[in-house]
Design a protein that fits this description.
The structure is a single chain. By secondary structure, this protein is α/β, with parallel strands linked by helices. It has 5 helices and 5 strands. Helix 2 (33-45) links the parallel strand 1 (25-29) and strand 2.
């Protein structure tokens, strides 16, 4: 029996990883630990890199120190709520372009339609499909 020897250079070329574009980074601000973990798993399974925050203040600090592509935030949280986080992002020169999805158990009010409003408003309970579709739409990945 004769074995075919593959040159090392061919083997290394075939084994080199495929270059992927950098993952989309989602800043997820949710004070309910169980819901935050559920949404984190949903988003990671959809291919996103998730940066979790337990409240709006923590999310604000993350946004200032870490590159992010989109924010998903609960409306009602301690320390800094989702509306205040959205207002902070909209007033920041470096973060104003970042899309914001606001999650709330309450109905959307007309007063939410200010210049500092979120790009999308989703009511809780939210399905994983609805959240992923909304993110895809806001990032221009789906029409």
């Amino acid at each position: 029996m004769k074995l075919h020897k593959t040159p090392v250079s061919e083997f290394n070329a075939a084994a080199s990883p495929v270059k992927r574009e950098p993952p989309i980074r989602v800043l997820l601000a949710e004070d309910d630990r169980a819901l935050r973990r559920f949404l984190e798993v949903v988003l990671e399974r959809s291919g996103y890199e998730v940066i979790p925050a337990s409240d709006g203040l923590e999310a604000m600090k993350v946004a200032l120190s870490t590159p992010i592509d989109i924010v998903v935030t609960d409306a009602m949280m301690p320390n800094l709520n989702g509306h205040e986080l959205c207002r902070f992002l909209r007033n920041s020169q470096t973060l104003a372009h970042v899309p914001v999805i606001l999650l709330s158990a309450l109905e959307q009010k007309e007063t939410d339609l200010t210049p500092e409003h979120p790009d999308a408003f989703l009511s809780k309970p939210i399905s994983s499909e609805t959240l992923v579709e909304c993110i895809e739409k806001l990032l221009g990945r789906k029409k």
